[in-house]
């Protein structure tokens, strides 16, 4: 196999499955309400299953059980909208941690609760601040990933954090920041957002990249290449949504620290 085919060999399946996920996801984001909540429930449950399977590959049935718990907890919280039930989001984390001798306990605990909070937060963000904010968030994550993918392969150069993510380069990382800032600039022209959106978009891209690095670190510690084989060319849902998790957690933090204005086209 030539260097070119090796470098770009995964491009076709990535594009096909990525386009299918993007179209389906954007449709559910547009519909909002119970449709987007259902997407968050399914995605959250599958990611908890992948995480549990990676961090304790000796008990596949336990991973399925934790995924079911995640789905039940997200369903109750998202469809009842009762703030007093929010602690249920920690259910798959607590149950997964109580088993004595569980390997990678800290990794599972931190990442599983992050998955649950991010899935809940994306739905709450869509309902509280509107579709435009969520569309901006998703586009920033997508272009950050795309710009990083192509810049990393075309430009190459020093690695960003080789200990945890051996493929991520400084060129790809910086390209992601620039691409995200451009998305922010475009949204300034088509919406009522303020100028701060440009640098916030770049920070959101960095949060997305940290989410990717966190998942890469777990995979390296687990000794696996992909979180699962659910998506052709992409691996598992965690492999695709790790950046979105980081971005969602960042925006949830921002929303707690400062008022988020309503933005319209």
UniProtKB/TrEMBL annotation:
The chain crosses the membrane at residues 20-49, 61-78, 108-125, 131-151, 172-191, 239-258. Keywords: Cell membrane, Lipid biosynthesis, Lipid metabolism, Membrane, Nucleotidyltransferase, Phospholipid biosynthesis, Phospholipid metabolism, Transferase, Transmembrane, Transmembrane helix. It is found in: Cell membrane. One of its GO terms (molecular function) is nucleotidyltransferase activity. Pathway: Phospholipid metabolism; CDP-diacylglycerol biosynthesis; CDP-diacylglycerol from sn-glycerol 3-phosphate: step 3/3; Lipid metabolism. It is a multi-pass membrane protein. It catalyses: a 1,2-diacyl-sn-glycero-3-phosphate + CTP + H(+) = a CDP-1,2-diacyl-sn-glycerol + diphosphate. PROSITE patterns: CDS (PS01315). The keyword rRNA processing does not apply. It is an enzyme of class 2 (transferase). The keyword Cell membrane applies. Pfam families: CTP_transf_1. Its EC number is 2.7.7.41. Belongs to the CDS family. PANTHER family: PHOSPHATIDATE CYTIDYLYLTRANSFERASE (PTHR46382). This is Phosphatidate cytidylyltransferase. It comes from Albidovulum litorale. The lineage of its organism: Bacteria, Pseudomonadati, Pseudomonadota, Alphaproteobacteria, Rhodobacterales.
């Amino acid at each position: 196999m030539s260097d070119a085919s090796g470098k770009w060999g995964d491009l076709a399946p990535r594009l096909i499955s990525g386009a299918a996920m993007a179209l389906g996801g954007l449709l559910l984001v547009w519909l909002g309400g119970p449709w987007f909540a259902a997407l968050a429930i399914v995605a959250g449950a599958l990611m908890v299953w992948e995480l549990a399977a990676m961090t304790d590959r000796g008990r596949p049935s336990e991973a399925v059980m934790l995924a079911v718990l995640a789905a039940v907890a997200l369903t109750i919280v998202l469809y009842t909208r009762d703030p007093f039930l929010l602690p249920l989001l920690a259910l798959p984390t607590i149950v997964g941690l109580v088993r004595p001798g569980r390997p990678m306990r800290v990794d599972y605990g931190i990442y599983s609760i992050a998955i649950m909070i991010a899935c809940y937060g994306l739905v709450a963000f869509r309902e509280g601040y509107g579709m435009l904010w969520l569309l901006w968030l998703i586009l920033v994550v997508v272009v950050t990933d795309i710009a990083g993918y192509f810049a990393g392969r075309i430009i190459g150069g020093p690695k960003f954090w080789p200990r945890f993510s051996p493929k991520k380069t400084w060129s790809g990382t910086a390209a992601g920041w620039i691409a995200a800032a451009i998305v922010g600039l475009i949204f300034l022209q088509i919406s009522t957002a303020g100028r701060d959106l440009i640098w916030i978009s770049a920070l959101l891209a960095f949060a997305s990249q940290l989410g990717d690095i966190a998942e890469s670190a777990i995979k390296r510690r687990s000794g696996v290449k992909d979180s699962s084989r659910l998506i052709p060319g992409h691996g598992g849902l965690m492999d695709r949504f790790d950046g979105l998790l980081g971005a969602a957690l960042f925006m949830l933090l921002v929303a707690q620290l400062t008022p988020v204005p309503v933005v319209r086209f």
